[in-house]
Amino acid sequence: MEQSLSKVIEPRAAQVLGWIAAGVVVIAIGLLLTFFRPTDPYVSTVLTLTGDTERGQAIFQINCAGCHGLEGRGLVGPDLANVSNRKSRKDLILQVTTGETPPMPKFQPSPETMADLLSYLETL
Q: What is the pLDDT of residue 67?
């Protein structure tokens, strides 16, 4: 009886260990893809540029002030005071270009224009 029971337990243990190993591999791949994914070339380009705050303010007045207020203190859109303390530069770029929180529209500025806007947002 003891030998037949061990024949059942060993294959079952091997099967469980196999599933655990497969799960660990899937999690590891997910983590690698999350933390080491290639950066969007647009974002990379914007991050290499030095924006002009005055031009950024003009861009903000034309494209953003209708929802965020003339000084970014919020109207329909949220208050952007200290927004650079809440979001990384990359996240700010993605927020502007994807409009990930409706009703914010997508805005597709040139990298230079985005760098200017980012420079202004960092002053709020």
A: 93
